[in-house]
């Protein structure tokens, strides 16, 4: 026998579930009506998304903020600024859309070498727009039925960052890194993956395109009896990033360039960067992304390989630069930390040689400063000068007494 609401007589449905109590039932519509009667609410929009705490910035303002924290990558910053502005402008003005015109969501694909700033761009934008952001590594994801992390767990991470506020999570940002690592195995590519990369891509389609997904607050498959929370991904901005190593060869072949042969000169990073400017969806399909996923990542932009000069600027110029952070650490012990220019150049070159991009700078800095930081509490009122020899040969730093007043 079908359950019915004891107040209005309507039967139970997915759109209008029933709440049971003492052999009686009340539907969600009647609950909302009762709320209006008792509390005088004019209207309750079940699917409304609060935008009061979102700081909607215009593209030039977004790019200016990115310039303070990300060195170079001007084209990527401009493209991302416009895309993010349009996305949140769409949310702010969703009530003004007429019935004949619906503005669809545009997700973003960032292609660039490791350490070129893809994750930092997404984090910086989320910070200044005051929206939650969840960062996931695609290599940890598996399709349903395999041991690993469910794709839906990405939404659980976002909900946790939003302090459990579903509405806040539903207009947040999800950054999926290393998306190129779930490319399916192509005809001439030696990609090995324990769990089908194509299966992961298929699983991502549902949440990226916009749908209501049941997730668990705790995540994972270890709590089969727990209650589920519904999250609508329609207004969540998805930003995917990846290095896509080898895709320049695909682009070169399509453009008619010779990428094989013993007489070919070694191609430079500048040539690779130039090739990326001509990337299209067909190249991504050849690389191993399924067309359905590419079709949901409407905005594509590329990031360049970071040069040594850019690496030096990254060390000192951003508002939260690595050098500034370490200087602050030493100031707490009343020690002044100074870097010679040749020391900065040497640190930048080490990062280039290790092919770690900007993210490798911190580990290099730790290696250089570890012994000095060990002694820092005993170096009050000293200035410590880091030279090229300290970076390259592990020579002792220069210690100068009485440069800081007590």
Task: Describe the 3D structure.
This protein is of the alpha/beta class and 406 residues long. It has helices at 28-39, 59-69, 74-92, 118-129, 153-161, 166-169, 197-209, 247-255, 269-276, 281-287, 291-294, 308-316, 322-332, 341-354, 361-375, 388-393, and strands spanning 18-21, 24-27, 108-111, 133-137, 173-177, 212-216, 228-232, 237-242, 299-302, 336-339, 382-386, 398-401. The strands form four sheets. The protein has a five-stranded parallel beta sheet with strand order 4-5-8-3-9. The chain has a three-stranded mixed beta sheet with strand order 10-11-12. The chain has a two-stranded antiparallel sheet with strand order 1-2. The longest helix has 19 residues, at 74-92. Residues 41-49, 187-195 and 259-264 have low confidence and may be disordered.
List keywords for this structure.
16 helices, 406 residues, 5-stranded parallel β-sheet, 12 strands, 3-stranded mixed β-sheet, alpha/beta
What does this entry show, briefly?
The chain is α/β, with parallel strands linked by helices and 406 residues long. It is built from 16 helices and 12 strands. Helices cover 40% and strands 14% of the residues.
């Amino acid at each position: 026998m079908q359950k019915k609401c004891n107040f209005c007589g309507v039967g139970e449905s997915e759109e209008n579930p029933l709440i049971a109590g003492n052999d009686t039932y009340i539907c969600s519509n009647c609950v909302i009506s009762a709320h209006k009667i008792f509390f005088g609410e004019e209207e309750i929009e079940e699917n409304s998304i609060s935008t009061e705490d979102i700081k909607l910035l215009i593209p030039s303002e977004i790019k200016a903020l990115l310039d303070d924290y990300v060195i170079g990558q001007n084209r990527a910053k401009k493209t991302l600024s416009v895309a993010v502005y349009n996305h949140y402008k769409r949310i702010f003005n969703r009530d003004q859309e007429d019935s004949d015109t619906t503005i669809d969501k545009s997700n973003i694909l960032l292609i660039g070498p490791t350490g070129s700033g893809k994750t930092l761009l997404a984090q910086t934008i989320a910070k200044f727009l005051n929206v939650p952001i969840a960062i996931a590594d695609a290599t940890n994801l598996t399709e349903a039925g395999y041991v690993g992390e469910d794709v839906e767990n990405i939404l659980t991470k976002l909900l946790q960052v939003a302090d459990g506020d579903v509405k806040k999570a539903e207009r947040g940002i999800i950054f999926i890194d290393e998306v190129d690592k779930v490319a399916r195995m192509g005809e001439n590519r030696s990609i090995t993956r324990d769990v089908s990369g194509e299966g992961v891509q298929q699983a991502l389609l549902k949440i990226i395109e916009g749908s209501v997904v049941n997730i668990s607050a705790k995540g994972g498959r270890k709590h089969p009896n727990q209650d589920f929370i519904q999250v609508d991904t329609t207004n969540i901005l998805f930003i995917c990033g990846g290095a896509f190593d080898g895709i320049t060869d695909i682009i070169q072949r399509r453009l008619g360039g010779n990428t094989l042969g013993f007489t070919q000169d070694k191609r430079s990073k500048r040539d690779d960067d130039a090739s990326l400017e001509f990337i299209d969806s067909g190249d991504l399909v050849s690389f191993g992304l399924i067309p359905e996923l590419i079709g949901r990542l409407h905005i594509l932009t590329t990031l360049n390989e970071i040069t040594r000069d850019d690496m030096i600027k990254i060390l000192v110029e951003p508002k939260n630069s690595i050098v500034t952070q370490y200087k602050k650490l030493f100031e707490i012990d009343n020690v002044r930390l100074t870097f010679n220019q040749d020391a900065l150049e040497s640190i930048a070159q080490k990062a280039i040689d290790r092919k770690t991009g900007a993210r490798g700078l911190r580990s290099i800095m730790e290696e250089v400063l570890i012994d000095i930081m060990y002694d820092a509490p005993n170096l009050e009122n000293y200035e410590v000068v880091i030279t090229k020899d300290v970076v390259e040969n592990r020579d002792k730093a220069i210690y100068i007494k009485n440069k800081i007043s007590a």
